[in-house]
From TrEMBL:
Localization: Golgi apparatus membrane
Similarity comment text for this entry: Belongs to the SPRING family.
Name of the protein this chain belongs to: SREBP regulating gene protein
Chief subcellular location: Golgi
Gene Ontology cellular component list: Golgi membrane
Pfam families recorded: SPRING1
Alphabetical UniProt keywords: Glycoprotein, Golgi apparatus, Membrane, Signal, Transmembrane, Transmembrane helix
InterPro entries: SPRING1 (IPR019352)
Length: 278
């Protein structure tokens, strides 16, 4: 009987060669992608999301909540971009939050370089805005400046996006928007703002006294022929009447140094108050 071991060794060598060939043909997962073949990165949008009927995306388009793309969260690009529908452009205020955001995103109305310098909140430690969309979403929301008597809007156009700066023109524009729905009345000598407004069937709005407590606003409604000065008095902002004693600087306009001390109830026999009524 012949020895079977040589035959077994041949079979083993053939099996080993087949296994090696199989490993070469069926190697592990591909570790890289060919440079000339890539995947298109999907376009994604940020949006205002909370609207019941309308939504604005960060490209400046407004659409109905039902028409937004559920995968990209982008509005269709068939509508108007940077739409200011229902907005008063002279005041930079709108009657719709979503159109306020869309209008605000227009580079011709909101400069990115100005926005990135602004603080998100009043404290010195507050951060700045990282992009225009965050600024527009924040500015267009309601604030205490939009409300009178804590429960009513000062105007239908209560979504405002103006960039507040230190120039006199910007301050005046911002002040005008905060006085929407407010009747600015010059009282008679010795009258408090509470009385000035009550006589007209309205109420004094304390939160708007700080808006009037500026020289440029006083000069808009009063003569201020003797200048405008900081002072301390419960009757301010006000103008000293011409008949006042010389020591009181007749004809001068006075504004309070500290806004937190402003009150509707203050009065002085020799001043006429500037009052916010609604």
């Amino acid at each position: 009987m012949s020895d079977p071991r040589p035959l077994l060794r041949r079979i083993l060598r053939l099996a080993t060669a087949f296994a090696v060939a199989a490993c070469a043909c069926f190697s592990g997962p591909v570790s890289g992608i060919r440079k000339d073949i890539g995947f298109i990165e999907p376009i994604m949008c940020r949006s205002t999301v909370q609207g019941r009927h309308l939504i604005s995306d960060d490209n400046g388009y407004v659409c109905s909540a039902l028409s937004i793309n559920p995968w990209s969260y982008c509005c269709p690009t068939t509508g108007d971009r940077f739409s200011c529908q229902g907005c008063k452009l002279d005041l930079q205020c709108c009657n719709s939050y979503e159109y306020c955001v869309s209008c605000c995103l227009n580079p011709s109305k909101t400069k990115k370089e100005d926005v990135l310098k602004l603080k998100v909140a009043k404290p010195v430690t507050a951060g700045t805005y990282t992009n225009v969309f965050d600024f527009c979403m924040g500015r267009c929301r309601h604030s205490s400046a939009s409300v009178v008597h804590e429960n009513a809007y000062a105007s239908d156009f209560h979504h405002c996006f103006s960039v507040q700066q230190n120039s006199s023109g910007s301050v005046e524009s911002s002040s005008v928007s905060k006085l929407l729905g407010i009747n600015v009345i010059v009282g008679r000598p010795g009258e408090s703002c509470s009385l000035v407004c009550k006589v007209r069937g309205q109420s004094c709005v304390p939160s708007r006294l700080s808006v009037l407590n500026k020289c440029e606003i006083l000069q808009k409604y009063m003569r201020c022929k003797s200048g405008c000065f900081r002072s301390l008095g419960p009757d301010q902002p006000a103008e000293v009447v011409d008949e006042a004693p010389t020591s009181l600087n007749p004809g001068a306009c006075l504004y309070m140094q500290m806004d937190e001390r402003l009150t509707c109830d203050g009065s002085h026999q020799h001043t006429r108050r500037l009052c916010p009524c609604a």
